Amino acid sequence: xxxxxxxxxxxxxxxxxxxxxxxxxxxxxxxxxxxxxxxxxxxxxxxxxxxxxxxxxxxxxxxxxxxxxxxxxxxxxxxxxxxxxxxxxxxxxxxxxxxxxxxxxxxxxxxxxxxxxxxxxxxxxxxxxxxxxxxxxxxxxxxxxxxxxxxxxxxxxxxxxxxxxxxxxxxxxxxxxxxxxxxxxxxxxxxxxxxxxxxxxxxxxxxxxxxxxxxxxxxxxxxxxxx
Length: 227
Ligand SMILES: Nc1ncnc2c1ncn2[C@@H]1O[C@H](COP(=O)(O)OP(=O)(O)OP(=O)(O)O)[C@@H](O)[C@H]1O
What we know:
GO terms for molecular function: ATP binding; ATP hydrolysis activity; transmembrane transporter activity. Keywords: ATP-binding, Cell cycle, Cell division, Nucleotide-binding. Part of the ABC transporter FtsEX involved in cellular division. Important for assembly or stability of the septal ring. By secondary structure, the chain is an alpha/beta fold. The chain has helices at about 45-50, 75-80, 100-110, 115-130, 145-155, 175-190, 200-205; strands at about 5-15, 20-30, 35, 60-65, 65-70, 85, 160-165, 195, 210-215, 220. Helix 4 (about 115-130) crosses helix 5 (about 145-155) and helix 5 (about 145-155) runs parallel beside helix 6. Adenosine-5'-triphosphate binds near residues 16, 40 and 214.
């Protein structure tokens, strides 16, 4: 049976008083890999922000990884984010510390105490993204693709029920985009659910999957050959 990790009914997405998307009906099930496409300004980022609690859901209903988005309290947001892995276009790594310390920072902030468990988790996530030998490096010593792989490793730390990736290949060249995409495909094969906003049609063609499109203030599913 399919198990929803995200479900929105009659939802509207707002930036302050401006309605960006309306009548949003979406379900994402455990294990899915879903693309979110649409022109610049069509609302992909606003949609993602609503999902991770950066914008409030004030109209319609939404559940994500066991949280109700309507009326989500400020103090619940860190707990929601712990069950989500969020990956951004610009990586958002801390440049003043090594890869390992970037990961350690998140684990400590989310309550991890046991040193053996911490070390094992860091090794595990770095291995998943093929960065096991680079833990001692600083982000600025890594290529863009490597930085993004570390950001994906960071998103995996708390075994998220859903990974939200907002243009994860937006700053990468085509070859490196494919490498990062291979990592996302691999973790999806291993059971992680992923929603990925992208502009990159080459990736959609190379790795076809369920695709949602933002257009004209609506989100709808498209069949691949018409995107
Ligand atoms: N902080 C903000 N305050 C007010 N309006 C905003 C804000 N951020 C975005 N918008 C507006 O919301 C609309 C949707 O923007 P959004 O960034 O969600 O689109 P997008 O599809 O993610 O675009 P891109 O691909 O360029 O990131 C745009 O009209 C934009 O001007």
